[in-house]
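so the lab meeting is tmrw and i was supposed to have these ready like two days ago... anyway. pasting both below. for each one the top line is the aa sequence and the line under it is the structure tokens. i havent really looked at them closely yet so no promises
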Amino acid sequence: MLMPKKAKYRKVRKGRNKGLASKGNTIAFGKYALQSVGTERVTARQIEAARQAMTRHIKRGGKIWIRIFPHIPVTKKPQDVKMGKGKGNPEYHVAKVKPGTVLFEMDGVDESLAREAMRLAAHKLPIKTKFLIKEEF
């Protein structure tokens, strides 16, 4: 599962995730891409589930790029613990996704196979997505 090797600070505040993606919003590596339409926090487990769904559908044929990485730790306090006594321990990591962010890219397969693989991956994610094709000039 994806997670940072080292973290300078262990705990991070929740913050806000407003606005549109200004970076990572174009197709850079592959021919086909899955782009987010909404705003959400995507967990490392959801990214891995989507990657597995795509890889299984294309039968390890083409190449897949994951364009998001879960850097942000999410803390949680244990069950049946009273209020106060500080912040909980990091439980999992998330990637903050804004509208327009390219989540996955794919190349080396035909369009119908890529479209179906991306559809299967989109079902594993908590955000609305759309399928993109790189325009060749």
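ok protien two:
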Amino acid sequence: MSMSMNDLGIVRRSIARADRAAVDRLAAFGVATIHEAMGRVGLMKTYMRPIYAGAHLCGTAVTVLLQPGDNWMLHVAAEQLREGDVVVAACTTDNDDGFFGDLLATSFRARGAKGLVIDGGVRDVKDLTAMQFPVFSRAISAKGTVKATLGSVNIPVVCAGALVNPGDVVIADDDGVVVVPAGVAGKVAEAAAAREANEAEKRAKLAAGVLGLDMYKMREPLEKAGLKYLD
């Protein structure tokens, strides 16, 4: 996706959010399960980490394009939030400054936001942890930002390598961040449920002492590949 100057200085107020029932279903599954169920796509880069262990979120994306060292558009985005949204913030160039802290989190939460995913830095980690406001970021930085240059709200963005359209479903946990396009949210939720059921069955077998070697019928292909056991 290439960005032009025409993409700057825009706030789209009406966006098509993913079906609420599908979002609620996806909230029950982990990032790894959803990623696998979707065909191993949609993951953000591995540098995106939760600011506290156990943080997790699932919601519909309100996207933000930030300028480096400038958090003006996060304030603009707050007005566009609805109950169940997640703010997904990308930057026009790599930047680790602390765009977000506990005051913006307080504002976002008052608007119904489920959390923030930002390809940049955040600060006030102790306060955000106490608030249990989930944030997934590329960095933690005490360095503050200014409010001087326009970006945009609710345009397609590439955040940590993943394309995010406004209204897509974003799920994040200790394993990372995954994006489910709004149009396939229901289908992916069904596939994730089927995968989870299948894994529960496997887990029970493994707990009973069955080996993966046998459960996955690996012995013959291993032998064909030339694996030899020496006593």
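from a quick look at the 2nd one: Helices lie at 20-26, 31-37, 72-78, 102-110, 125-131, 185-207, 212-215, 219-224. Residues 185-207 form the longest helix (23 residues). will dig more after coffe
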